[in-house]
Structures are given as structure tokens and as C-alpha cells.
Specification:
Elements lengths: L2 E4 L4 E15 L9 E15 L2 E5 L3 E4 L6 E3 L3 E14 L2 E4 L6 E4 L1 E3 L6 H12 L5 H20 L6 H12 L9 H8 L3 H11 L4 H19 L4 H7 L4 H12 L3 H8 L14
Antiparallel strand pairs: 1-8, 1-9, 2-7, 3-4, 3-5, 3-6, 3-7, 5-10
Length: 276
């Protein structure tokens, strides 16, 4: 399997985005001078590129290599999201082994409850607006960063640390851990060892991971509740002004902008033809 790599300076442009369905047919075979990203909602997609065959299931993603023919190798029954993009400038390459700071395997799994579907929906929303370029590029890069982040995480073999990771995702607001010292003490770890575990298994520092979890929690509250931004900030133990700055830094827009663009029926994603 190959890997798509890019750097901090790489700039992307979204060409098309939508939702596709194939019933009892093979995906069309074609060669494009652009990348296509698939995210499987349900069913099975059988696709082949460069002599390698892939079987994609719910929660899997696939990234096609540009200028290399790809298509179905047997009939599929599948619902999926798709996105075509190009690189405007900067480094990017498909390689046999990971070489870049940011690396995405050609096929991978995003898992349940991942934010990628929300990012996809935001991209789709902005795609049909005028003066959308900068925001659309930022959202696309956020999606690719997310994929790279998922791909670089290592399986957690330390059962005790696995409980720490699970706590981050199951605890409502994480207010009892606000800094590294209190976090390490709360979980019963030495600070330096705690940092090493996070770097090894998660690829981030404990505080970076905490902030990411809180921002993800805030995004869900903005979409699924009518709480004010101030109330959301307080529920996450943040000063509202600091929360606004933090949210915009990580998401690329203010909480209110995010709420307006994300709070719509996910079904408005454009239906592609059955062959995408």
C-alpha cells in the first residue's frame, strides 16, 4: 500500500464534493489528474488501483493516486462521501513508505464518531457559496490533517494508559484536569513518563490532546444544543474570551460561524450519480 505525504506549506484546492451510491455495479474505471477521497457510510466498495485491490467497509477511507487508473474490480453495494482535490503548491507525493511530516495511507479506518463527517459537511456547505476559497482550503487541510493524525496513532498496548484515553472520551467536560501537573496527578503518573506515553501512543502532548478533546466536545455542543457560546466555554472550564481565541485557532472560524455552517441537515450533501 502507498502513502500520500505533504508538508506544512502544502496548499490544497477542493474541486468537487458530494455523496454517492452504487448498487450492484462496479465503480467506473478512470484516470484523473487529481486526487479523490472516499469515506464509506455503509456497505462495501471494491476498488483497485496500481494492481492492488481494496475492500472498503463502513468507516474506511480510500485516497486515489492521481494519474493512475482506478476503478471497481467487482460489483459493489455502497453509500459513500467523496471529494476531489488538487494541490495548488507545496510538497506532495505518493510513496511506498512514509516520508513526509504528514502522511496518509491510501486505505485506512477513521472509526466511530470521528469529526471527519462534520468537516465533510462543512466543506459541502461552503462549496456552494461565493468567496469561499480561503475557508474551503482551510477545511480541506483540516480534514487531511485529521486523516494524518488518525494514521500516525499507534495501538495502545498499555491497558492502564488505554483507560486514560477512554476517560478523555467518556468524561463530559474534563474540568478536573486543567494543566499537566493536575492531569498526571489525577491519573497517578509521573509527569515526564505521562508525556512520553502520550507522545508514543497518541502523537501529541497531554495538554494538546486535552485541548483537542475539549474543542471536539465544543463542536458537538454547538451543533446539537442551543447553549450559548459563553455557557459552552464555562462548561469546559474556559474563560469565554480565551475560548473564542482557542476555538478559532483550532477550527479556523468562530464558534458562532461554526454553528451557523454546521447546523443543517446532513442530508443536503449533493447526490452523485451511482458511478460517482
Amino acid at each position: 500500500m502507498k502513502y500520500f505525504g505533504f508538508s506544512d506549506s502544502t496548499e490544497f484546492s477542493c474541486l468537487y464534493v458530494g455523496q454517492g451510491r452504487i448498487v450492484g455495479q462496479k465503480h467506473i474505471t478512470r484516470t484523473l489528474d487529481e486526487y479523490e477521497f472516499f469515506l464509506i457510510n455503509s456497505g462495501d466498495l471494491f476498488i483497485e488501483q496500481g494492481g492492488e485491490k481494496f475492500h472498503l467497509k463502513k468507516g474506511d477511507f480510500f485516497l486515489s493516486e492521481k494519474n493512475v487508473s482506478y476503478g471497481g474490480h467487482e460489483p459493489s453495494d455502497v453509500d459513500f462521501l467523496w471529494l476531489h482535490f488538487v494541490v495548488k503548491k507545496g510538497d506532495e507525493e505518493f510513496t511506498e513508505t512514509p516520508k513526509f511530516k504528514y502522511t496518509i495511507p491510501q486505505k485506512g479506518e477513521v472509526g466511530e464518531g470521528n469529526a471527519l463527517v462534520i468537516i465533510f459537511s462543512l466543506i459541502n456547505q461552503y462549496y456552494y457559496l461565493v468567496n469561499k476559497g480561503a475557508v474551503l482550503s482551510s477545511l480541506l487541510k483540516a480534514l487531511l490533517y485529521d486523516l494524518s493524525d488518525i494514521a500516525t496513532k499507534k495501538p495502545v498496548k498499555d491497558s492502564r494508559f488505554q483507560q486514560v484515553v477512554e476517560y478523555f472520551h467518556s468524561n463530559p467536560n474534563l474540568n478536573e484536569i486543567n494543566d499537566l501537573k493536575s492531569m498526571a496527578r489525577f491519573f497517578g503518573y509521573n509527569e515526564k513518563y505521562f508525556i512520553r506515553l502520550f507522545k508514543k501512543y497518541v502523537g501529541k502532548s497531554p495538554m494538546q490532546y486535552l485541548i483537542n478533546c475539549k474543542i471536539n466536545r465544543a463542536q458537538l455542543m454547538l451543533v446539537n444544543t442551543d447553549m450559548t457560546v459563553k455557557a459552552i466555554a464555562l462548561s469546559l472550564n474556559y474563560d469565554s474570551y480565551y475560548f473564542l481565541k482557542l476555538f478559532k485557532k483550532h477550527v479556523g472560524m468562530t464558534p458562532n460561524q461554526y454553528r451557523k455552517t454546521a447546523a443543517f441537515d446532513f442530508g443536503v450533501l449533493v447526490e452523485a450519480d451511482k458511478n460517482n
